[in-house]
Write a structure and sequence with these properties.
- The chain has 430 residues and is of the alpha/beta class.
- It has 2 domains: 351 residues, TIM Barrel; 45 residues, no CATH class.
- It contains 17 helices and 10 strands.
- It has a 5-stranded parallel beta sheet, sandwiched between helices. It has a 3-stranded parallel beta sheet with strand order 8-9-10. A two-stranded parallel sheet has the order 3-4.
- Helix 8 links the parallel strand 5 and strand 6.
- The mean pLDDT is 93.
Length: 430
Amino acid sequence: MIRNIILVLLTIISFQAAVAQEVSTKPNPWTGKSDAELRKIADELAHKYIITDGHVDLPYRLETKNFRLTKEFIGIPVETTEGDFDYVRAKKGGLDAPFMSIYIPSSYQETGGAKEFADSLIDMVRGIADAHPDKFKIAFRSSDVEANFKKGIISLPMGMENGAPIGDSIQNVEYFYKRGIRYITLTHGKDNLICDSSYDTTRTWNGLSPFGREVVREMNRVGIMVDISHVSDSAFYQAVALSAVPCIASHSSVRAFTPTFIRNMNDDMIKFLAKKKGVIQINFGSSFLDQKIRDNQDQKREELRELLDKKGLKMNDDAAKPVIEDFRKKNPTLYADVEKVADHIDHVVKIAGIDHVGLGSDFDGVGDSLPTGLKDVSQYPNLIYSLLKRGYSEEDIAKVCYKNVFRVWDRADKYAKQAKDRAKRSAQGN
């Protein structure tokens, strides 16, 4: 036993040393370039390479606006001043494959109807693509994205945030694969039938449930990537260890910068994910990026609560609205900036290597908390510029923008095909 532990530690130390040597010995390929030249290169690279974003909450934003694909609303995903995503801004920023989040609030776990709600959002995304075939197309695999990219069409792959629509039926995993879902975030804000949530202290299963283990295996079998954003630490380790395919964290950031926020991933988790060939996709929300901003938010939230209590008001009271508005005017929101997002990417690269980090903005999902320089999908070149300043090569940029995630996506597809072939041969043998 002691010998095995020593071997594991030596393997991890060797892995870390190799990563550190790779980072420290790489020359800066942009030495001598002016600031203006780097910005121009950043914009060129944003359009030269595919940019995939692991998590864009457009469907749920439109749902809350009672979006319907009727004539008067048909242009909303094309150009709008609302939200963080539309076609015009995406083209400006070079975004080619935003994973549309099929977000299922945890409330559906109590009320029922999760599967039906998921279907309605999937139908919405498909409807947008059908209504604008020259601009959007559903993507089921990375090769679809590449083909659409060559035609100048934005791909709309889909990921389901919260596995609650699976319910207690393992058959629903394949059902949602056939509907176009290509990753499933195992849970969201509360423990569900699959696993525990990082936000829920109940710890119903101390990780994955027995059914959750079946779900992970079935996701592998059909070709759905396992997304471990939102899950508890125990559920993370169990899912990553169990999965036969590398996992993703579709929209998580680095806990080293937010020690009290366990929704983010700590260094050991990131290293374990990397050891299993997975990818963490960095969330852009300011509260995911900076502990000082989290602390300020907590302090102001408590001050507002105390102010309302003194007036005998609750947050949802109509009479509270002017009080809240006045408080917020006197206490403006603090934001991180694009450099802080680059810091998170840097940290992952330093501890796990360039092959294990990507982008998972959470656009349209984190409200008024996006960092300066990354306020919407038009601004990815600002992040690329920041990485270029830090010495990231063109190939590094390509890996962060899409190659790392595509590697996992392709591996999920390949494993599912092999599983299907094995099952076919077994059936023929019988």
